């Protein structure tokens, strides 16, 4: 392995995250270069392992660590449940080998795949030829030199994976913010501009936003599937005449890298969603799972769930929404475990449900989801529970709140469980009454039948009068009637049903609310 095919131990730890691995011993620090993952086989000699990441299944021992150190192994990864970590950490320090503990529910095959794919940013891609660099940053620099403009390589989520650093090539504020935030800044023109690039087979020009430099962009594809994009900035000087051809070559060179990066992201996301599902259901090692997401096991948390208003659950949309929730909460330093479970986005957030910031961040995320995916979206917020162990209770409440927001008795985009109690009650009553004839029976039926026979407007008058809390002048104004005219109607309705009976009024109000009174007689 060459240095080009390695990453630092710090990059490996930060990329995998605490939910995948945690450090037990780092005798040579975070700047140590590490390379290819290898699953340890006790029957095989430890040769050719210089800089390797050794995955040790079974029961590791101090002897294995000593041999690994002699063989030049950079990192040994073990499972904490199979050994006492303290003696192993001492042995690792003596051997000069980093020791990491992997999550107990992560298979060795999954861990191998994730580490191998993370090397895609710096590991050589096969069959690219000598003309192109072996890592994405070097590739961006080579393209920038050849086309005469600053270059960025992005994935489909508009994350900046790599960018050029060629001197004297100007960039604008849009590119500068993208580099600093490692993500393209939000702008109303983003959706259409990126869609145009992904629709085109060749490089296309993008002139939006108008206040920034124009860009020449091309989609990165593998086997017809879009993986990302490459963007070249045209500043004061025009790009070279062959810039479109250069970008096409670069897109082919970048495709293997992005394919491996996507594989790593998919695997890490799948595992993260599985851990989130277990927390939401309250199964497994709750404290360990909470810690893996950066949550304190005994701190109060609130569950948020997001779903579409009037269409079936969608796995892709839920995954994208979960990513947006995670990014949004992190931007405000709110610790959260976010992801997609059963076609919905969920987040377990370390804050109180009444916090105005929680509602605002969630509402802003809904707007971004609608902008990117279309449609109407709603978010239910459960009540705050004392610890992560009680997250299933808050999750059920968040789901109930979302159900209410997607039903006919609430019209907000974001709602707390406690403020939606009336809507939930009406939905339950509606469900129990929907198939029963009493929903359209007395006392509403004779009034509706009278309207049908005589062309009167008694049902609508009743609905407005009840909604106005029996205030005749107010209801008359809403109906564009004189108050005496409404009083006369109410007396006539009183000949059909007893409007002085409080129970009649209650049932009548429920019938009108549940049925909509569109045509109850039919």
UniProtKB/TrEMBL annotation:
Residues 459-514 form the PucR C-terminal helix-turn-helix domain. Residues 286-404 form the CdaR GGDEF-like domain. It holds the Pfam family GGDEF_2. Belongs to the CdaR family. This is PucR family transcriptional regulator. It comes from Microtetraspora malaysiensis.
């Amino acid at each position: 392995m060459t240095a080009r095919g390695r990453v630092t131990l710090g990059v490996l730890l930060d990329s995998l995250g605490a939910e995948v691995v945690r450090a037990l011993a780092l005798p040579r620090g975070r700047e140590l270069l590490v390379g290819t993952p290898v699953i340890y086989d006790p029957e095989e000699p430890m040769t050719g392992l210089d800089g390797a990441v050794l995955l040790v299944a079974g029961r590791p021992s101090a002897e294995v660590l000593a041999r690994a150190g002699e063989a030049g192994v950079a990192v040994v990864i073990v499972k904490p449940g199979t050994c006492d970590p303290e003696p192993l950490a001492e042995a690792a320090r003596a051997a000069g080998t980093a020791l990491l503990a992997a999550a107990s529910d992560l298979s060795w095959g999954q861990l191998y795949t994730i580490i191998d794919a993370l090397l895609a940013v710096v590991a050589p891609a096969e069959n690219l030829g000598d003309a192109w660099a072996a890592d994405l940053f070097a590739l961006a620099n080579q393209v920038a030199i050849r086309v005469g403009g600053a270059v960025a390589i992005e994935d489909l989520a508009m994350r900046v994976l790599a960018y050029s650093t060629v001197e004297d090539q100007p960039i604008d504020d849009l590119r500068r913010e993208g580099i600093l935030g490692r993500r393209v800044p939000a702008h109303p023109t983003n959706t259409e501009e990126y869609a145009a690039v992904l629709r085109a087979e060749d490089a296309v020009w993008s002139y939006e936003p108008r206040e920034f430099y124009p860009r020449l962009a091309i989609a990165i594809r593998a086997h017809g599937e879009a993986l990302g994009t490459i963007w070249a900035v045209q500043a004061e000087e025009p790009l070279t005449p062959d810039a479109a051809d250069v970008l096409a070559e670069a897109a082919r060179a970048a495709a293997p890298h992005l394919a491996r990066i996507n594989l790593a992201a998919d695997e890490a996301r799948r595992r993260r969603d599985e851990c989130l599902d277990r927390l939401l259901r309250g199964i497994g090692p709750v404290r360990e799972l909470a810690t893996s997401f950066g949550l304190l096991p005994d701190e109060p948390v609130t569950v948020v769930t997001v779903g579409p208003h009037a269409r079936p659950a969608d796995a892709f949309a839920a995954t994208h929404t979960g990513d947006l929730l995670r990014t949004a909460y992190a931007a405000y330093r709110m610790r959260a475990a976010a992801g997609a479970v059963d076609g919905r986005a969920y987040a377990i957030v370390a804050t109180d449900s009444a916090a105005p910031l929680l509602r605002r961040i969630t509402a802003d995320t809904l707007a971004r989801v609608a902008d990117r995916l279309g449609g109407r979206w709603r978010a239910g917020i459960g009540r705050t529970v004392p610890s992560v162990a009680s997250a299933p209770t808050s999750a059920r409440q968040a789901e109930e709140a979302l159900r209410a927001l997607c039903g006919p008795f609430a019209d907000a985009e974001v709602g707390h469980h406690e403020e939606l109690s009336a809507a939930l009650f009406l939905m339950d009553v509606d469900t129990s009454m929907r198939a029963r004839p009493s929903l359209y029976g007395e006392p509403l039926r004779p009034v509706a039948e009278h309207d049908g026979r005589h062309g009167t407007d008694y049902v609508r008058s009743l609905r407005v009068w009840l909604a106005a809390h029996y205030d005749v002048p107010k209801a008359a104004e809403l109906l564009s009637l004189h108050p005496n005219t409404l009083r006369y109607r109410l007396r006539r309705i009183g000949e059909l049903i007893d409007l002085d009976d409080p129970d009649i009024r209650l049932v009548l109000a429920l019938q009108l609310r549940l049925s909509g009174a569109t045509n109850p007689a039919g």
